[in-house]
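Section 5.1 Outputs to date
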Amino acid sequence: ASAHAPHSTTKERAAKTMAGVEVRHEDSWFEASIVSVKKDKATVAYKEKEREPHQEEVALSSVRPQAPPPAADFSPAEGDRVEVYTRLEDDEAHSWFPATVQYSKQDTVFVKYEDGFTDEVKLGIVRPLSTCPVFQGRLSIQRVKLPADLEKWSQDPSLHADFCQANNLLSCAAEKSDLVLMGSEENVERAQRVVGYHIKMLQTKKKVEDEKARLLLWREQEAQSAHYETRNIPRSLMRFVIGQKGANIERARRIAGVVNVTVTEWATDTHSSVRIIGESDEAVRAAAKLLFFTTDTLEVPRKVLGGLIGVHGENLHKIEQETKVVRIRVHASQPEDDFSTVEIVGTEASIEEAKHVLTFNVKFLEERFQLEKELDQLREESYGSGFRGGYRGRGRGGRAVRGGRASVRGGGNSAGRPEPEPANTSSSSSKTPQRVVQWASMDAAPPSPQSAPRQNRRKQQAQEQGHEQEQKHKQEQKQPPQRTVVVAD
């Protein structure tokens, strides 16, 4: 029987002891972990209980970091220097013995130890000769706070093996909420400069593993679910589907009954594909209301565009907020066109709501436009039939030709009676009642029952009657000023 008895494979031990150290005794290295440090010595606890004493104080110069496990394709060749995890006696603890490969065959390696003893061992307990240096200088221990999402996940020592080896640390392990770095002062200080990158890498690994687990679960649930819907969305709208940093997708996934939402960026040359899988049709429809964005149009008469848009687009902006559409945009049209195109972007439900509000607004504006047109026409007819002069064409205010009052030039009053001679106004003893008649001046306002506001005057009427009214105005200015006539009763 061989004096070097095998124990367990290198990979099996690596998962348990990667954060530990190796302590040299004579010509082999025992796996251990550091319990405490005092100056240039350390108290270590050996991995195997067979090692006596189980704990002891050793010089730091006989301690080195745990060697990393061999590569998956490790295959030693003749003459290679290796280490074998074995023991000399059955009642002793296992340790790493240096040896030289004689030859290898499949999973079996023939080695020769430094004491000249040869043995046939399994490949699983063989590793390359460790190059980890023994500890030199003063030992330093530093703790680094771990993010809350890594506290439990990072307890596996193998996650820190590469970082520990790259910085020549004696130990790098997670203890509760801290990452403990142990090694020389120089190496620990160097490790602290890059430990932030190590933590970010751990977070990335955790995120990838979580995503893999989620995808596997989704595939299982998808295979069992018969409720799903797929829709091709224009890539120009995908930013609304995904949302800021994927917020809209995550919101849809959190809907009760939704199993998963997947996005295929290049389903076609112009569209991406969104697939919703749920436990029921109701859950799928609820997610579709959040994710299925589209574009629709509405034809609007050009004559009502100003009222529909509002000052600086405030009316359209208000409709966007009320109906929760992404965008309402009016496309430019040709001057000869009677209609303009309004584009609406949003989910199907929000677009229908926006179209309803826009259609109602357009109907209201058209009715108001028609009512104002009828009112203007009525005003034109009223001025044209009741007053010969109509509007003054140059915007000086509407004045009708005097027709309902006594005329100065005619010598008679409005009833056709001759004017009486004016009485002597200087006699103070006259008891005859007198009444004063105020003749209208040439510039007085017309006795119109209604006057048209300036803003409702029509340009065409001004052009037709402007010249005639200007001539009359000039003649009126030449007439004498108003006068007072005293008529005796």
